[in-house]
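fwd from M.: "can u put these together and see what the complex looks like"

so here's what she sent:
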Amino acid sequence: MAISTLRIVWLYPDLLSTYGDRGNLLVLAHRARARGIDVEPMQIRSDQHIPHTADMYLIGGGEDGPQAVAADRLLQDGALSRAAEAGKPILAICAGYQLLGSSFYANGRAYEGLNILDLRSDRGPSRAVGEIAGDAHPQLGIGPITGFENHGGRTHLGEAVQPLARVTAGVGNDGATEGAWAGHVIGTYMHGPGLARNPKLADLLLAWAVGTDPAQLPPLDDTWPERLRFERFQALQAAAQ
Amino acid sequence: MSANLTPRAKFATTLLRTAAALSRATGRGDGSVIGGRVGLIVEPRLLELLAEGRHVVLISGTNGKTTTTRFTTAALEAIGKVATNSFGANMPTGHTTALAKAPKAEYAALECDEHYLGQLLDAANPKVVALLNLSRDQLDRAMEVTALAAKWRQTLQASGAQSTIVANADDPLIVWAASVCPRVVWVAAGQSWTADSAICPNCGAHLDRFGEFWRCTNCGLNRPSPQWSVAHQGEAVVGPDGRRYDLNLQLPGRVNRANAATALAVASLFGVDPAQAAPRLSEVASVAGRYAKVERDGRHLRLLLAKNPAGWLESFDMIDPVPPVVLSLNAREVDGFDTSWIYDVDFTSLAGRKVVVTGDRRTDLAVRLEVDGVDFLVVDDIRAAIAAVPPGPVEVVANYTAFQDIRAEFNRVN
């Protein structure tokens, strides 16, 4: 593979790391190392410059106040937008997902987003809390997805993005679709963390980062993640009956 | 106290005790919640009436409130009878029951759920309020933690500052909430989990930390000088005048020495000599099953309750480095349905020892441990976990309902 050391930037853990978001970084590092790819995880605080040269960028979820501060600092820094233009994989969760759009709602008002994804978010009628599941966009080739959501926002997708998934349980963007995807940028309401519960999504991001096809990545023993997925889907089925 | 109760309040108290006794007799629990509910229906002001004339301390925070309440009760018992909600029923129904059951107690040490602090400030008119720490806990059903700190700050300000606050100088969220009060006694109670206070709760700027000191570079919020602290060497608490009070706690860990420091600070505000109180804390061997030692088939289990990331990190700090560890995780309603927080806990310190996982959500733990490179064995329940480890000491760490399941297996050990 083209890359010997994979540099993964985790953005703003000081502001946006409310629901085990570090887990996505840990899962990516674990799955890369298991394939012999060295990983250099880089935790970048909101008072530090964002490196331009990383291979992947992660941003997590958080409360209204920190979300607004994070968006402001990301706009000033500019590196995340350039990374998106350069085709670097970006995974954004919940509040981090919302701020990639054109606008989001926090602290009782609308804020300007980064315009990396063609979407906007506003406030929903109620908080969406609980297990979420869906069928991922077929082009992504990752099958059903599972996670846990906890957000008050609703997200409206524009023409230039695809939904990450069709919702089969939970709310996601609006009760019909969940998350968004364009190029190598993925946004989602799934924490849990999302990549621990969706190893194929983790591998898709890794494949994008190293410039290969997911099918080319050596397979891993996913007995435990697969069992966890089975349990979570089964729990949703039991709850629906 | 109860001599002054109105006939209605007396009637409500009698019904409360009857309901609690019935609940216990029918094996439904200790009756604290149902008793209090019945009493409060008959006399909505019952809690207020029962608290009147007593010297009350409220103890709240994310972690350590049950243990600190037990320590405080032990210390206050040096000077009189103490009403306390020792069953962990820490909402107004439980407080009402605790007071109703101890009509002659001049003092009350009440553990208070974080979300009921305002209500209790109004109803119980506490002389002292101890605020331990705030960190993320059951986020799917509770408030996010900065919002909770803001609510406390507002509540304390609105309460008219009748109480003296005993507060943790090492937790920026606690300092921010408590600093609106004119009388605060600061305790260096430590902070094992700093991720929820990376930024200033007051202004959103970054907090600078150097060792135990922290300050906001923007608004100036900083660590107050503590009057009470845990000694750096040996098992002792250091009081405001620099005097050392030796501890010989049965409960493990730095965090319990800090809980002891808070209890001594509270007790001294009630006029208890810390030198007289300190030995009483050493008599506490377990707290509602927490830290209890039980034996089965030659396995000596120590039971540790840990409900959130801060609690799990504190447990890993307490456990002996060699024995096998059993981890049990549930995600029922009171635990929070969301297990994401286990990714906020670093499990790498468990690598190289025998780790057995169980509980409703054992598969979540399995995935988590695999990511951290920790070998593990997955079993169905605590019995299977015991069978899977050799005779000798075993450390058991479990979250709330998982812990209660294990306690049930050991005859609800206290």
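replying to her w this: The longest helix of chain B spans residues 7-25.
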